Amino acid sequence: MDAQHHMANLNSPITELYRVGKATSSLLKKLGLETVHDLLFYFPFRYEDFSSRVAIADLEDGSTVNVIGTIELIQNKKSPRRRMYLTEALVSDGTDTIKAIWFNQPFLTRTYKVGDQVSLAGRVSENYGSLALVAPVIEKVYSEDLIHTQGLIPNYHLTASLTQKQIRFLVKEIISLADQEPDWLPADIKKKLGLLDLGLALRQIHFPKNQAEITAAKQRLGFTELFLRQIKSQMIKSELKARRAIAIKFREADTKEFVASLPFKLTDAQRKAAWEILKDLEKPMPMSRLLEGDVGSGKTLVVILALLNVARNKKQALLMVPTEILARQHFNYITGLLAPYDLKIALLTHSHKDAAATQADIIIGTHALIQENIKFSDLALAVVDEQHRFGVSQRQKIIDFNSAQDQTPHFLSLTATPIPRSLALTIYGDLDLSVINQQPVGRLPVSTKIITENRRSDAYDFIRQQIKAGRQAFVICPLIDESDKLGAKSVKAEYAKLDKEIFPELKIGLLHGRLKNKEKERVMADFLAGQTQILVATSVVEVGIDVPNATLMLIEGAERFGLASLHQFRGRVGRSARQSYCFLFPSDEEIKNPKTIERLEALTKYQDGFSLAKVDLKLRGAGELYGTGQSGFPEFQIATLFDYDNIKKAQAEAKALVDDDPDLKKHPLLKQKLGEWENKVHLE
User: Mean per-residue pLDDT for 605-630?
Assistant: First the structure.
């Protein structure tokens, strides 16, 4: 080891570590990993279990094992059938010999030589009548401490051409620094709840000896994420208690007239939610409410009733949504519905700056409005769509939106992520809850099917017919670029394949998170206008755009998404009176996994998000860590939103602490941490 290595601390750039070159560090940067601290907090999302070490003589087909032996032969061959290299090795442990096979890794023969003692880990499968290890992980046995092939092996989310081995090696290098991380969780809380110290939790999450260590580490790390959110909620709650809001009188005649003018009847659930909101608006204390409703349950209409009541009280109302296109769609829809009332309705986005907007009755804009220091003269209600993409700290800014500081707007937040009631109240500790759990009459369920590889071309034929008949299709992929995780579809590769090989006659659009905002908006607008017939996208489309003409949703690598996300994707189709379809394509290796199929089958059985949330909770189990992308809540890496006990504890502890120390004067470390956390969540 070189001398500088001993000097590393939490803020050291990764580039100072042993064996990190320019190429690797730019790949790590793509994952947001620039310092030692970032690496420590880059948690594995699952573990391979190689804890059963088996003698070669006892190997059984289909088992996942660790084998230790000596290389007796290793060589590269050209494979005649597929244009690729095969590397074959014979490994013997004294009880028997087994063959190991790798594809396209000819460099292995440079690293490993006859006589080397190696540890192999992977799946045993039949190969031309005898057992073999196909594409196992391999490492030389040079110490007791093998981090790639023995015990529970951490797996991290990767980006193009980074390997698990590289990340594991780097984390191993710096794991001893875990104890330098200041532990800001008050000691009495740790003691009372029996939670690990932060340093120990970090060591165990990366290199656990057994399942119990993973559980204990997750409990501590998950608790702290929930705890920070709860502290923030409790602080907002206590601040709101002292604030006044503009009381909005219920305009009964207007409301009845508007409801009667609609071409359909409101559901009972819509009526009940609207009533809870309108009653809150009548009070002089600021409303804090979360309106939770499944995809397509008609949340927008409930919101319009509130906007109308505010505008008829000669006060201002604001609706904020995640994307510019959605803002424009809402603007057109609301302007149409409220035309008879002679109200000033304004659109306010990056590309559409309306100077008079801050004087309008109803303002519709994007979340980005928070960044601009906009002040309203008479804002009585702020509505935010998709709460979970909108941090608690941004909420703080809304509190101060009025130029008259003594008036706090009523706040209504919307989400289509179905969360059980008990849970919503704890995640959003400062919000009351209204739920719309009914679908409007006349919605056809989306026909959902799991498509195996051998039925793929039939599915493509079906899509071709539908598009010829004038419909449009979404195709969702889990990744942007080709990754080294074999079998995961990337959106760029899929786009090229559909464009060149499968539907050369159709116009296809491409959408992913690395495009500039203007580009994204343009791709969406083309699809909306019917200029492209298929839109290939990553999960950026999860949060809405309404394309009534789209009736087909294909999801590649479907097992890589949580049920809630899959349900959101499916909600992008079936928005008109036409029959719509959702096809789930699991990747090849996952079709054989009964757990995966059981999870995906839930989508074919249930159309409503609440039932799916329950299934998800049951099937996920505690063993899986979901990466940031999975939970949909950017600040949660570990704390699943289903860990109800932990959430309740976090809420109780946060409340007690804030009641006792409202400005966190007695807890300087915690206060500093909260500030960092807000910035991080805010940036995302």
Answer: 63
